[in-house]
Gap junction protein (Melanocharis versteri), 219 residues
Amino acid sequence: MSWVFLRDLLSGVNKYSTGIGRIWVAVVFMFRLLVYVAAAENIWKREHDEFECNIKQPGCENVCFDHFFPVSHIRLWALQLIMVSTPSLLVVFHVAYRENREKHHNQKLYKNPGKIDGGLLRTYLISLILKTGLEIVFLVLFYKLYNGFKIPRLVKCDIKPCPNTVDCYISKPTEKMIFLYFLVATSCLCILLNLSELSYLIFKYSIKCYLKRHVKKQQ
């Protein structure tokens, strides 16, 4: 899978972000995207081939694997990375709209098209809310699909066509568990950063609006 588009997207967003937003971009790029590409993808590469059950009944192993892993951890992680990065496109598109509007009118309409104010501020806040919401949704999804943030060494399966309860063994469970905890920790860190940035922007522009009103009253 090519991650060039996601890398370019994060680089573009970084130009229009606040200081906290730049930390979020760094965390996503270094601790999520690079870890996924460099290490995690290889760990889950042959998870189906390395899933073994103590029976050779045709179809039993496949059915048990599908039951315990309805969606691969690594594919769900990839989907999470794409989905939580996508709302940032709203900011990039809004800045591009401002720049195109200036070109169309052939005059300077904004002091700085990339400055977070007015309509761009609302777009930025919406993108933060969406990113936070998606992070939470995926964490809940991980928890529900796999009955918690854990990977057992042994699972017992009694689904047809298995003739009886069989023992199935998951490959490299400890290594996968470490990466799963890392995934959850980085997701929680990103949620914290998004909420911090959201609070910072709301507080900053609330103070700014209050001061403007105060000056008008004084005048």
In short: The longest strand covers residues 154-157.
